[in-house]
């Protein structure tokens, strides 16, 4: 154990010189704290390579080409499967969005019917009746939905939604 | 993707791979598969597990390539995925081992043995046996030290690159590497001349 406060600059110099193994555990503790708490000290060490592994390194034989080929086949299949799964998630997401939009539409209808003002109060809003949609045109990656209210008023809501798949 | 980054050949390759170009992906795979395998093998200690980790890591990397910020090199980013996957595998293996021990079964548990039990000490060991001793010693390191050692052992990475790949501060990398090297030297001291280790007693 060192009995005095370590000279951190000197320790950093030694670390940069590759003397990692020569430190005492308490010096390493002080260095770790210093490096983690002072960005300037850490920046000094960013491009420093640790001492060579030397006798601690060993060359492991690499897999042969057939093993790599099997790994690649697995990657190729896995990427395609991940893509399909993303598309499925996207479809479900689209369905939830449409369901949410329809629920919001129904809620708006109910709220409007309950709270619609008396015509005698002046301005009022009416649903357009007897409207027939002959043609609905959307552009690019958008999808059109026509939703009819569930009474005989003939009211229709038109939703234009961006295609979630971007297809 | 960070479109403002310099259009190096590697960046163009990454752009193509992100768009789903199979050839570009294959090129990236062939370029980095060995580095990924070495790291995975040093962490997991098993060839089959290392290949599984490499496969999973490339799938994850290609699937996430669109969101890859090129502040880090692709290799560093890939090796981070490899290390995380390897550590996940170690954790699940530990759970399996615990279940196996509870049931008092033998079988496909991890091949972790005390280094001193696996081979006779001395200079007469064959190259393969030396590698086996070293691999067993690495297996005996705690996972966080093993991950640092796995990134370091090729001798190519700087403290900064290891820190970035593992997502830990530089001081922590330095400390874990220090303790990993000390333990390995201690476990393998019968294989090296006393003056080679450099460990101060």
Quick structural overview:
The complex is a heterodimer of chains A (167) and B (201). Chain A has helices at residues 8-16, 25-37, 39-45, 65-115, and strands at residues 142-148, 156-162.
List the helices and strands and how they pair.
The complex is a heterodimer of chains A (167) and B (201).
Chain A: H1 8-16, H2 25-37, H3 39-45, H4 65-115, E1 142-148, E2 156-162
Antiparallel strand pairs in A: 1-2
Chain B: H1 9-18, H2 22-44, H3 47-63, H4 74-102, H5 115-118, H6 127-139, H7 143-152, H8 159-166, H9 170-187
Helix pairs in contact in B: 1-2, 2-3, 2-4, 2-7, 3-4, 4-7, 4-8, 7-8, 7-9, 8-9
Overview of this protein structure:
Chain A is mainly alpha-helical. Chain A folds into 2 domains: 8-56, no CATH class; 90-162, no CATH class. Chain A has 4 helices and 2 strands. In chain A, strand 1 (142-148) and strand 2 form a beta hairpin. In chain A, helix 2 (25-37) crosses helix 3. Chain A is elongated and about 90 Å long. The mean pLDDT of chain A is 77. Chain B has 2 domains: 1-111, Orthogonal Bundle (Rna Polymerase Sigma Factor, Chain: A), CATH 1.10.1740; 113-192, Winged helix-like DNA-binding domain superfamily/Winged helix DNA-binding domain (Arc Repressor Mutant, subunit A), CATH 1.10.10.10. Chain B is mostly helical. Chain B has 9 helices and no strands. In chain B, helix 2 crosses helix 4, helix 3 crosses helix 4 (74-102) and helix 8 (159-166) packs across helix 9. The longest helix of chain B is centred in the middle third of the chain and has 29 residues, at 74-102. Classes of the chains: A mainly alpha (167), B mainly alpha (201). Chains A and B meet through helix 2 and helix 4 of A and helix 2, helix 3, helix 6, helix 8 and helix 9 of B.
